[in-house]
Amino acid sequence: MLGGATGAGAYALGMISDASSSVAFTALAVVVSAAAAIVVGFPLVFIAVPSIAGFYLARFFTKKSLPSYFAFVSLSSMMVIWFVMHNFWDLNIWLAGMSLKTFCKLIVADVVLAMAVPGLALLPSKLHFMTEVALISHALLLCYIENRFFNYSSIYYYGLEDDIMYPSYMVILTTFVGLALVRRLSVDNRIGPKAVWILTCLYSSKLAVLFITSKSVVWVSAILLLAVSPPLLLYKDKSRTASKMKAWQGYAHASVVALAVWFCRETIFEALQWWNGRPPSDGLLLGFCIILTGLACVPIVALHFSHVLSAKRCLVLVVATGVLFVLMQPPIPLSWTYRSDLIKAARQSADDISIYGFMASKPTWPSWLIILAILLTLAAVTSIIPIKYIVELRAFYSIVMGIALGIYISAEFFLQATVLHALIVVTMVGTCVFVVFTHFPSASSTKLLPWIFALLVALFPVTYLLEGQVRIKSILGDNGFGDFEEEDRKLTTLLAVEGARTSLLGLYAAIFMLIALEIKFELASLMREKAVERGGIRHSHSSSQGSSTSFPPRMRFMQQRRASTVPTFSIKRMAAEGAWMPAVGNVATIMCFAICLILNVNLTGGSNQAIFFLAPILLLLNQDSDFVAGFGDKQRYFPVTVAISGYLILSSLYSIWQDVWHGNAGWGLEVGGPDWFFAVKNLALLILTFPSHIVFNRFVWSYTKQTDSTPLLTLPLNLPSIIITDVIQVKVLGLLGIIYSLAQYIISRQQYISGLKYI
């Protein structure tokens, strides 16, 4: 309505120019106004009022007189007030949760503002603030009326609350008409950027009623949009390449965003309650508030502080904090929950108990420790905590991390085993110190880290054995052997001991895996630095000679052979920088692999497929002359293939032995049964798979060129093992032998072709 009046006024002023048409238009306006007043029942005594209003409207279009338009607005307002009071004022009806009189007042005020805006828009630029005030007031009234209609849907006071009397398409229509009007007035320079910002937020906030069923969602959305949108709408100077905001402005906007999110906590609570079907926990509510605050600050950082690295890091840390609160849902003290009356009412509901019953409570305070540990890790990774440059801070950081992780693991997984708590905390502190100082070494760390690793290795069997011995002794010390309940309690305790030991194995496997990965990463970085240093020296030496001739193919091949030996020399020169690292990494890798094999036996009964996932752990082995002579980067795949072959062979022997000794006590000669013939047959078929595995493992160790017929000759030996055997492990070995033979043949062929190219 406002946009049509503004645009049509400019168009009519251009058309009505000559005197004859002006008189005709004025007469027509007067007649039409009087007729319309008579139709709606306006008293004939006051019929001059609408006629005069029509006259002033025509005068506005013909003479371009703003006082005439405001006279028309005044007279029209009087007629609207009479119409409303004459027809609706005495009705005792509650509409949209309020009396009809109140609703009539709002409608009259909104109509008067709508009629006044076209005239205010034509005022001089110094008075454009009046247009802005009128538009904002009109938008506020419209938001209030539509919110009441949409969320307070009862026609009468005790009417049906679920019947929506205001359709959704009307909300969408008024929203887009309002945004189009704001856009048009902004392009014509009728309103300023601040008014555009406020009006855009108000009109856009009305769309929230379509998605969230909350009676305050419009105002909550408006506040959030007003807090989030300034970086997008108020700072549009694209000619400046630097930050368009100052630092204090960024802090101020971020604080406003946080306050706006805090103000909207009830709506967030209602949305989460609708999503979960039950009231969310305090940790979940706080986590979503933090995430919303971080996401709302993204425009500030992305558009105005994209060159400030610390701002990006802080934003990542804030969002990560919110995600951790959502995932962990830690308990929050009552003084931190800032609960409102709505949240208190939801907490005091007894529906959860009546529906879900009483649930066993579990201590949730350890979640604060894991949140602290993860946030400290992120802060260190993003260099918010400068542990890279301060040794004391590095030591304090690693100790705090270890204590937090140790207490969390003890309380979360070993709550009943109090004797293990101190040992687990010491283990985690040692692990954190080892990893941190291996990544950021200090002057004395190379001397202390091997001893810390030795302490971790020694704590493993002590912790494992101590967990079982203490509880078992407590069971054997009891005297109630005849009591049935006592026997059940002992069985439960034994099962708990077995579960705790399995958890300990998993914990130490993860610790040794982390240590092996860290050492492998550091050794690879050191080799890379040495290779770059040697390459730089070689490049400077070749450039000083001024050699401009190209290498022949044979010389180029020799250069590549020399480049492949750089890691070997770098390992020998590494003694001054930490010769213990390869040995410690190898021990950690082997222990991790061995513990994983034990877990495979305990959890899956010795699954054959698991070895294909566990054997790649051995890729973390490092070149160490004290470990295996001649083992280097060239032989890195040899432990993997040997482990797979060896595991399957041992598993086959165990399966054959188990079938013979536990399958048939009668020692019959039935073919295919668990007897001596069964054992001899399957052992012979198992031996037939050995040549392919031996040849391939030798090839993986040396990569020496063999005759093409060797892998092809061993390939048919695996076919009887696949077809005849009764043991699944032998079949897997046969299939693996065929794959090994084909792979060796293809690799050897490729090496031969590559050698011919160099020659």
Strand arrangement in the largest pleated sheet: 1-2
Overall spatial form: elongated
Helical proportion? over 70%
Strand content: under 5%
Rg computed from alpha carbons, rounded to a whole number of angstroms: 41 Å
Based on secondary structure, the structural category is mainly alpha
Low-confidence stretches: 1-17, 155-162, 356-360, 544-575, 664-669
Number of strands: 2
- List the total number of helices: 33
What can be said about the biggest beta sheet?
2 strands, antiparallel
What integer is the average pLDDT?
Answer: 78
Distance between the termini: 87 Å
In short, what is this structure?
By secondary structure, the protein is mostly helical. The protein contains 33 helices and 2 strands.
Task: Provide a descriptive summary of the structure in words.
- This is No exine formation 1.
- With 759 residues, this protein is mainly alpha-helical.
- It is built from 33 helices and 2 strands.
- The protein has helices spanning 2-15, 19-39, 48-63, 66-88, 100-121, 128-151, 168-187, 193-205, 217-228, 230-233, 247-263, 265-276, 282-296, 298-304, 309-328, 341-347, 351-356, 366-381, 391-413, 421-439, 445-476, 484-545, 553-563, 566-572, 575-578, 580-604, 610-614, 638-663, 676-688, 690-702, 709-714, 718-723, 728-758, and strands at 94-95, 98-99.
- A two-stranded antiparallel ribbon has the order 1-2.
- A hairpin with a 2-residue loop joins strand 1 (94-95) and strand 2.
- It is elongated.
- The model is unreliable at 1-17, 155-162, 356-360, 544-575 and 664-669 (pLDDT under 50).
